[in-house]
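Shift notes (night). Ran RNA polymerase sigma-70 factor while the centrifuge was going.
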Amino acid sequence: MELKTSPTESPTESTLDDAVSVFVELRPRLFGIAYRMLGSAAEAEDVVQEVWMRWQRTDRSVVLSPVAFLSSITTRLAINVAQSARVRRETYIGPWLPEPVDTSNDPEVGAVRAEALELALLLVLERLNPTERAAYVLREAFDYAYSEIAEILRLSSVNVRQIVSRARKHLAAEQRGTVDTLEHRRLLDAFVSAARNGDVTSLEALLTPDAVSLSDGNGIRGAARVPVLGRARVANLATATRRFWGGVDVRHVMANGRGAVLLYRDGQPTTFMTLAASPAGIHQLMWVFNPSKIAAFLDSPSRVQG
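Came back to this:
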């Protein structure tokens, strides 16, 4: 990210150097907060840029804790963006999926723990309101104290505890057990191999009976505009179009802490795919066809690391 100096401010060079130093150190954390709240690397980047502009204009001599101050601004801005994003997504054509981010060099994306980062969980987090999501993210991924979260959200500590508790229960009801990274990669490889070979029987053996396939294309041709439900339908969809797999170059990537594949055709990236699985098998496939989201993924290493 390029740090742009505000045209309304003329700080001394040493003061601006100090501001840059502090901000660069905290930037991965700020991006991580915004990304988990918005599910979009591009929107998170915009939030972080706005935080930087405000940091320049702040009387930093009275800021006791830069991390608390910058985290507060980031969270509040992200809440505002999340509220407007909900309205924008009502016009999205077909299923909406979070923008994946490359986590090959930063598995936690600026957090204490890699919590609230997997695409499947980010999708479930969309069902929380922005304040609930902020409280959960700050507590579970960044280990903020309840009192700190209360100050950021301008709520009581008791209220914050209740919000986080409700969020945990809601997510627990929506989430299934998961598999470790190696098993996830094995299932991913097995799925891609069976799909490329048109092996419906092997695909069905990998899937749970209630498996669902979600395709994010925002109206792009070839992307299913409704979720595809059920083992047989998902398996048939994955092999229905032989041209889809023909001539495709499959490249493995790390996205949101899990293995994924990026499919290239004629040297151009066209499709991103990952999955969610439990010990019972693959229960969710996530396909991203939206060109802007694929471009955002390819650009995400520079955003994640700053």
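Confidence is low (pLDDT under 50) at residues 7-12. The CA atoms of residues 14 and 234 lie 59 Å apart.
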